[in-house]
Each structure stands twice: as C-alpha cells, then as structure tokens.
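Annex B. Sample input.
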Amino acid sequence: MNKNKLFVLFCILLTLTSVVISCLPDKIKSNDNESSLAVSDTVITDTAQVNADTAMVPETVTIDGKTYKNVTLIIDTSKVWLSRFPNEEWWNERVLWREVKYADLDKDGVDELLTAYFTGGHHCCYIYNFYRQTSPNTYESIIEFKGGENSVEIKGNKLEFSFFEQIGYFYTCYACSVESELPFEFYAPYFSMVYENNKMKYAEYDEKLNSKIIKNLEFLKARKPSEFNELGFDDGTRKSYAGLIIAYYFNKGQDLKLTKKIFDKYYNGDDGKEVWNAIKHHILGIFDTNYSTSVFLNQTVPDVKKYLDKRKKE
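Annex B, continued. Sample output.
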C-alpha cells in the first residue's frame, strides 16, 4: 500500500516537472543572459521605460536634400526635437509654414542654425531663432526676432534683420507709405549682426547705408509730416521716419543720444516728443516685442488723438 502511494506521488511530481519545463522560453542562455520570449507571453513595462525607449527612435528631418537625425533645439529652458519644432500641435496643423537653414556663418566647420515659423495673423507674424551648436546634434537659441516673412536672412557671416513688419502701423495704416517718393527707396529697413566666437554682435558702421538714410531724412524734413485723419493715421511719413531713425541707431554704434540729435535735426513736426518716444520705445524693445496691429491701434493711436484734442483746445 505504501509502495503504491509512493509510486503515485512520483508520477504527480514527474507530471508537474514536465509542465514547468514546457512553459520555459524557447531559448535561454544563462552564460550571456540572452533570452527570447514566446509570442504569447505578456510583458509589463513601466511608463518611464517606454518613454526612454521611444526617445531612442530616430527623429529625422530632411533639409535641402540632407537628412538630420535626433537634432535637439534649446530655447530658453525648453527642449524640442527639430523634427517636431516648434511643437506637436503646430506641426500637425502648419507643417508647410516653417523654414530651417543650416549655415556655417563663422567658417569654423560647424554649422549654425536658423529657424522660422508662422504664428498666424495679418501683416505678421513669424518668429525667428538663431542657434549655435553646443554639442553634436544640440543647438541653443541665442537670439529671437519677431517680424514678417523673410524678415531675417543670412548674408555671408551676417544676419540681416528687417523690422518693416514691426513698424507697419506706426501712426498710419499698414498700406500707407511714402517710400516711393524717397531719394533712396527703403521699403525694408534693416540692421545687421555678425556671428563671431559663438556670439552675436552688431555689424560695423556702414557708411553707404547711413549716407542714404541722411539723404532720405533731408527729403522728409523738406516735405514735413502730414496731418492725421479722423482715425489718427498720417500718410506714412512718420513710419518712414521710424524706419530710417531705427536703422541709423543700429548702424551707428547704438548711440541713443546721437540718434536723438539726428531725429531732432530732421524731424520738424509739432509732435516730435511723442514720435521720438515711440521710436525710442521700439529701439529698446526690438527683440522683445512685435509691433503689430494691436500695439499701435490700442496704444499709439489713442495717444495721437489725445495730442490732437490738446492742440484743438489750445
């Protein structure tokens, strides 16, 4: 009887051992820790590991026929893949409204990077970032500028910044302009910066540019600023003054006192104080703000109307 019980117990153990062996993975190599799981097996992995694995999938972007992988952009404290820049939501909706340019501005064998993307709106609004490489495949933004289409362009070792869109409503309507009357047409007022030693600096004085600016200011002085209409708009004269004076400031050593003297010399309107303050405000905030419709309609125009009302009472 005892022998029969032992035999039955032995059979049960033998059966359990067979079942366990049949459930093992198809391949196990304990020496090199390599193993493969059966297709039907279930693997539970935490979210952090999934994200880590996903990050290893190459993020590719093709620019001018060349493919770049896993390029990271750093703007302030934010990081984003170049392939998804500026963000996932924007990328899905406006994939065609951005531009990326690689260029070696300082000729050191390492490309810098310029990005631009459209934010929406009339007569604006593009955001430009210029980056230096901090490590392979990582670029840090060192300057940001808001303007219109093609407002920042690479010219040799320089970046050329056009602020025409920013002053589009400077005491006037966007389409209002006297540029075609000027001795030297200045439809896209600009200033330049040079990239050297991993830094941006203002370009050296351009005598030809400032000579043209002075000729145009002489013309505007003889012409005199026009009166404002009922909306507080002139014919575009003050916008031309703004473009010329701002360009002069950045092209003449960024000397605010000297620039103020030039303005006082050539501006002969009764509202010189108000116009200068608006120009000065723009000069000091040219990299921080976007002077689009709302700024001039909500801030500058009411100031002009107050000035006009004051003159009527006098």
